[in-house]
Every structure is written in C-alpha cells, then in structure tokens.
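Case study: Triphosphoribosyl-dephospho-CoA synthase.
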Amino acid sequence: MDAAVPDPTPGRAFLRACAWDVAVRKPGNVSRASDGHGMQAQTFLDSAAASVDGLCMPGARVGARIESATAASWARVGCNTNLGIVLLCAPIAAAAERVDAPSDWRGAVVEVIRHLDVADAEAAFRAIVQANPGGLGDAAEQDVRSAPSLSLRAAMTLAADRDRIARQYRDGLAELFDRGLPALAGAIGPLAPGDEAWAVPEDAVSTAAVQRLYLGWLASDLDSHIVRKHGEAVAHSVLNDGRVWLRRAEAGEPLDADPAWAAWDHTLKSRRINPGTSADLTVATLMLALLGA
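Here is what the predicted structure looks like once written out:
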C-alpha cells in the first residue's frame, strides 16, 4: 500500500479515507481481508477513484458534486458502492473551500448545508435514483423518484428520523464532529493532516483505530442500511453485538487476533447483512480528520 504522506486537500483526503475503509476487516463490510456482497475491496477503490473529480469540483454546488460523483462511480463499477459516502463527503468537499483554519470547519459545513436549495435536491435525487440503494422504498413526502419542492436539507430533514445520513444534513454533520472525530482522536491521538502516521493502516495502532471508529458508529444507533433491508430487529441484534466488540476494542484488545472477529464478519456476509451506513460514517469521519477538522 502507498505509504506516502497525503496532501491536506479534499481529493487526497477522500481517496485516503476510502482506502482506510477497506484496508482493515470491519465485520459485514467488504475489505482487503474479506470479499462480500458480490464485491471486492478493489471495487470500492475503483469507485472512489472514479468519483473523486466530481466530488471535488472547484466551486460546484453540493448537488452537482453528488450527481457527478455518483454517475462516474456507476459508470466505472456498474453498481452502488459509495452513494452514502458521496452524500456525506460532498458537503465536506464544498466546505473545504471555505476553511482557513481547523476552527473554521464546523461553521463552514453548517453554512454549506444551510445554503442548499431545490436544485441541489433535484441533482441529489437523480443520483439516488441512479444508485438505487437497497431497500429504498417509497416516501410519503419528497420521494426521490419525484421532483422535489424543497431544498436538499429540508428534504433530508423529512427522512432524518429513519435515515442516519439524512440526519447529518438536518444537523450539520454534528455527529461527525461530536462523536466521530473525538472517537478517532481517542483511538489514535491527535495527528496533523500531513503526519506520516496518516498512511493507509498497516500497523496495529492504525488498524485498531479504524475498527474502533467503525464499531463506535455501529454500536451507537441502528444502521440505516440494515434497517432498510432486514428490519429493526436484525439491526438491533447487530448493534448489540457491536457494543460487545466495541468494549473489547476500547480495552485495547487486538480484535484481529480473535478468530471470532473474522467469524462474525463471515456470518454477517453469509446472511447478506452489511452495516453500510456505519461504514459511510467511518469514511466521512476519516476524511474530516485527514483535512485537519
């Protein structure tokens, strides 16, 4: 794996975050350690490489970033690998153009989301329809298959109670700042964006940090992707298992050393259970951290 020091730019941070995501075993998710759901780690890396230019178009609206990145990803790999990641990272990429210091990040993200309009919603809806995420279903208001009449943030707010990614739009990515970044800092310590330790994880400390971050998301709320595809009972079961593993991770146990960790991964995949929303939140947190938020 490339161990070069990354540039603190949105494109490099996005690609590095996506590489971190598949570099370590995260049960239920595709990784270099374990294929699953008809995909391999390289599928996700190819998807990230295809979508980065659209996601990071200078001066582009958030909706245009989402639509362009999703279309490019779909053209490259022919399936939905990163819609949730793109939805979360598009406001981050847009906010990066407003940031001069780490203290600017939260306010910049809030401003980007506050100024989303109906055109952003139209573009995002087209992207969601193209990606066709599993278990999407129909919405009583502002269904993505119909023309929106509200801003993207307002439309996401309508779905916030049932979808954790939509909740981030409603709340200005608050969970990323209040939960994700502190959890990552607690696991790996404070790092500058250009720190050599931000290389794709091959050491035990970095691997454990990514796994702990993922488990923190998985154990803190029902995974929206699991709920859509399998229902709340299954999502609760996975959440409870995640809490057990999170306690072990927080105690410093090397999870990969326990065969039960890989067995859990295999069991989830054999049941076609993919905590995809938790993975999406992991990537977005890593991108923010790599940018120095």
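For the exam, be able to explain this: The mean pLDDT is 90.
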